[in-house]
From TrEMBL:
Organism for this UniProt entry: Citrobacter freundii
Origin: domain of life: Bacteria
Record's protein name: LrgA-associated membrane protein LrgB
Residues annotated as transmembrane: 12-38
Keyword Transmembrane helix listed: yes
Keywords, in A-Z order: Membrane, Transmembrane, Transmembrane helix
Amino acid sequence: MQNWTTRKARFSSLALVICGIITSLVAPFLFPIILAVVG
């Protein structure tokens, strides 16, 4: 049970890192679109 919890924690942290990378890659393209829609 402890091993499964550790694996899940590692996966969630890995997913968080992947989300951060995707966000940093996509943000420069999305930011002008968001500004155009909001503005």
